[in-house]
Amino acid sequence: MSDVKVTYFNGRGLGEVIRYLLKYGNIGFEDIRIDQDDWPTLKESTPFGQLPLYEENGKVTAQSVAIARYIAKKVNLAGDDEWQNLEIDTIVDTITDVRLKLYPLYYESDTEKKESLKQTLLAETVPYYFERFEKYITKNNGYLVANKLTWADVYLAVSLDLFFVFLGENVLEKYETLSSLKKKVEELPGIQEWIASRPETSF
Amino acid sequence: MSDVKVTYFNGRGLGEVIRYLLKYGNIGFEDIRIDQDDWPTLKESTPFGQLPLYEENGKVTAQSVAIARYIAKKVNLAGDDEWQNLEIDTIVDTITDVRLKLYPLYYESDTEKKESLKQTLLAETVPYYFERFEKYITKNNGYLVANKLTWADVYLAVSLDLFFVFLGENVLEKYETLSSLKKKVEELPGIQEWIASRPETSF
């Protein structure tokens, strides 16, 4: 019986980077998916009212990126030295910055405002960051940092999925370097099988 | 001559956690403060258009929290093992979540909406998080994590300053445990001298 548990909603969202890393490292875990109806009750018992949660040997903690960094070290997807870890963290926090720019789209109920936000993202935000990410990938031998696969690449791959959901699958059309890194991550042993077998959810 | 450079605006903001950690560790650095007028020109040359930047031996990177984690390891304010580092990161990312909730206040120009946002922060957000942080501090012998001083405490102390700026200095009135941790950080060797001698800025 596995002593690792990942608790999240029935979706990819903030949970998927954790699941990818565990699958990549062949670490067994219980994939607990909370029904929205049960969430208000569970919320009270979480450290800061948020999912995902990560449990190991009975100890529980929260925050997706923090958990991903922890697992990355276990599965050898961290840097070789502390400067590389810093460079990974710089990219990871920048990916989070861009993810956060998508959320107003989700919460905006006015159709016209939503469309205007979407156009700004497509015309300004996406090119600004995607072009910079591509330069890193070109400079680092096909990976974001350190000339090798790290958890920054895995985080980018799952985050690009979020861009598909909010901005359409063709958002990556012009970014071949980003697309091929995403594909490379999705074909990794463990992750490929997971994608083929995971529960189907809209995001 | 120091080979460490910290580049930020002339303010505390996202730069101060880096300066505190360097001062605590007695690591010399060049404290470069960019004039707002010079920023548009410099912005182009930064990795992702943002400050602070951290430079060491000619290598440059961005993202305040990533940089803080890197320096914390150098100055022995990281965890003793990877689980402690995860717990630190969980708290740090949660502090960032709360900081981000303050920014709409800064950008809201409508006086009435600004006041309403402020009231929600004071009545709901602040108590929710501050009470939880206090529980951690009580459980961990006066510190947020690991029963000892870590960079999570330093990040909390500088972040509470931001709450003062946006919500008023009396925001900590009811939170003696938080207040005394903030004071403890501000009286640390290196940090105390820095606070007494740093440039005076509004935030």
From TrEMBL, chains A, B:
Gene3D superfamilies: 1.20.1050.10, Glutaredoxin. The keyword Methyltransferase does not apply. One of its GO terms (molecular function) is glutathione transferase activity. Its EC number is 2.5.1.18. It catalyses: RX + glutathione = an S-substituted glutathione + a halide anion + H(+). The keyword Transferase applies. One of its GO terms (biological process) is glutathione metabolic process. Residues 81-203 form the GST C-terminal domain. Residues 2-79 form the GST N-terminal domain. Pfam families: GST_C_3, GST_N. Keywords: Transferase. InterPro entries: Glutathione-S-Trfase_C-like, Glutathione-S-Trfase_C_sf, Glutathione_S-Trfase, Glutathione_S-Trfase_N, GST_C, GST_superfamily, Thioredoxin-like_sf. Homodimer. PANTHER family: GLUTATHIONE S-TRANSFERASE, HEMATOPOIETIC PROSTAGLANDIN D SYNTHASE. Belongs to the GST superfamily. Sigma family. This is glutathione transferase. It comes from Popillia japonica (Japanese beetle).
